[in-house]
Design a protein that fits this description.
The protein has 7 helices and 16 strands. The protein has a 6-stranded mixed β-sheet with strand order 13-14-10-12-11-16. α1 packs antiparallel against α3. The protein is of the alpha+beta class and 293 residues long. It folds into 2 domains: 111 residues, DNA primase, PRIM domain (Alpha-Beta Complex); 165 residues, Alpha-Beta Plaits (2-Layer Sandwich).
């Protein structure tokens, strides 16, 4: 029998709590839900007003993994949804605005991916993002080297940037922007990616050609496009272990080595939040938003 739990005044059916989602560590669905409940304050702030794309893996990362952008069948009527413009026609997507909605979505076993804009201003980016993706044998260590270069280059343009692990192999850089057309944000991000490749040709690649990626860090600038999404801060990932897209300090980025790589799992996050707070909180402060040059 599926247990019924009340969360913030909403009745939720939370199923299969003992099911192992991450076989490598024995991490269960119940632990997935507990993780999201204990990080809700930080996570919800970054999801607020951003249409959600779900990457679902209900049988774990070794089972079926699929993206769901439209409102899933059976979504409770109290979950906020909104119409989102798309080139192929408008679609209705979920907004995870509160704890009850978060726990409902977490029960589907999902990664949370968001656009760089909010529902009130679709296509007007308020965040800039770079996804640094290493091509083996390059690792997150090389991503950190590229991140430090990008940080200085952004600072020269008056833009303060922040880092988080992707929760997979690489690193994400984010910055708060004054509302900017997504096309312009994409152009600017590409300009910086090209400049990074010119300055570090043996290390950086700005093109998506997979045959060129081995040993280099692909600086993916394209996720600034209005239609694209990026893994949200604090989301679990569909990996062998319960890895998390984790905000990190610039000191940690500078100190990253093969012996001390930046990799964090669900049990690491509560202590980090207690020690650092939300390292990406400045992204939520309009006072930190910068114009593009």
């Amino acid at each position: 029998m599926t247990p019924i739990t009340e969360v913030a005044g909403r009745r939720l059916a939370l199923s299969n709590l003992e099911k192992v989602i991450y076989p490598a560590t024995g991490f269960t669905k119940g632990e997935v839900l507990h993780y999201y409940a204990t990080t809700a304050d930080a996570l919800l702030a970054h999801l607020h007003d951003r249409p959600i794309s779900f990457l679902r893996y209900p049988d774990g990362p070794d089972g079926q993994v699929f993206f769901a952008k439209n409102v899933p069948p059976g979504t409770p009527d109290w979950v906020v949804t909104a119409e989102v413009p798309r080139s192929e026609g408008p679609a209705r997507m979920v907004l995870v605005q509160d704890l009850a909605s978060l726990m409902w979505a977490a029960n589907l076993v999902t990664e949370f991916h968001t656009h760089q804009w909010r529902i009130g201003t679709p296509g007007q980016a308020d965040r800039l993002v770079f996804d640094l993706d290493p091509g083996p044998p390059a690792t997150i260590v090389e991503c950190c080297e590229v991140a430090l270069w990008l940080r200085e280059r952004l600072a020269a343009d008056g833009i303060e940037s922040y880092a988080k692990t992707s929760g997979s192999k690489g690193l994400h850089l984010l910055a708060a922007l004054e509302p900017t057309p997504s096309g312009r944000a994409t152009e600017y991000a590409k300009e910086l990616a090209v400049a990074a490749e010119k300055d570090m040709p043996r290390l950086v690649l700005h093109r998506m050609t997979r045959s060129l990626r081995p040993g280099k860090v692909f600086v993916d600038w394209s996720q600034n496009a209005a239609r694209k999404t990026t893994a949200a801060p604090y989301t679990l990932r569909a990996r062998a272990e319960p890895t998390v897209s984790t905000p990190v300090t610039w000191e940690e980025v500078a100190d990253c080595t093969a012996a001390r790589p930046l990799a964090f799992q669900a049990p690491d996050i509560a202590p980090r939040l207690q020690e650092h707070g939300d390292l990406l909180a400045p992204l939520l402060d309009p006072g930190h938003a910068a114009p593009l040059p």
